[in-house]
């Protein structure tokens, strides 16, 4: 492995990257938050179903 070649490719990617605008950042946060809420709701739904079944938790 040639470390200089790998480092130069990493530097090239970092130079191309830019910071997101506020709208893009808030949209990413909103989508990530919605995903977290969805997974939590799904877990709660599974827990509720397992509790209602005979011999559940």
Describe the model.
- This protein has 57 residues and is mainly alpha-helical.
- The protein contains two helices and no strands.
- The protein has a domain at 21-57.
- Helix content is 79%, strand content 0%.
- The protein is elongated and about 65 Å long.
- The relative contact order is 0.07.
- The mean pLDDT is 89.
- One of its GO terms (cellular component) is plasma membrane.
- Its main location: membrane.
Helix content: over 70%
General form: elongated
**Average predicted confidence as pLDDT:** 89
Termini separation comes to 53 Å
Number of helices: 2
- SS class: mainly alpha
Profile the largest sheet: none
Order of helices and strands: HH
Rg over CA atoms, rounded to whole Å, is 22 Å
The overall strand count is 0
GO biological process, one term: protein secretion
Organism: Haloquadratum walsbyi (strain DSM 16790 / HBSQ001)
Transmembrane segments: 30-50
Function: Essential subunit of the Sec protein translocation channel SecYEG. Clamps together the 2 halves of SecY. May contact the channel plug during translocation.
